[in-house]
Request: fold
Amino acid sequence: MAEQRTKRDAESREVEQRPSDSWIPASVLPNPDPQEGWVFRWVRTSTLGHADNTNVSQKFREGWVPVKAEDHPELEVMSDIDSRFKGNIEIGGLLLCKAPEAKVRQREDYFEQMASTQMESVDNNFLKQNDPYLWSKLTPVYRGALALTLSLET
Reply:
């Protein structure tokens, strides 16, 4: 007689799966738990053992604030031994900092505007070199429309 077999769709791989025994290496720079209204970033404090005070002071002026180690116990890190930022999280010449989300958005908008202005300048220069007479006769509105049309064609 034919032996009784369970149907294939009744079998479940989930029951047969073993718990995950795989090992995953730890990240060199851990990510802190997200906090609402804050953005985290690693700021360079030194390169090849030489302090980078200019970069650190620039980032502080931009609104980045060093993160206290006691505020993020989940990171489980030992800061650099010779760290100038005692009580903060510094790993391999990088200091964990945070800034208000609104300030970071303002910075991004500023640089997007700067890049847009530079691209517009390049486009205008390109058009001026191709037909200077035509360019001088166009009003600013037509120049912008023409520049946009040419950039869409390429």
Q: What stands out?
A: The first helix runs from residue 13 to 16. The radius of gyration is 28 Å. The chain is about 40% helix and 15% strand. The CA atoms of residues 6 and 12 lie 11 Å apart.
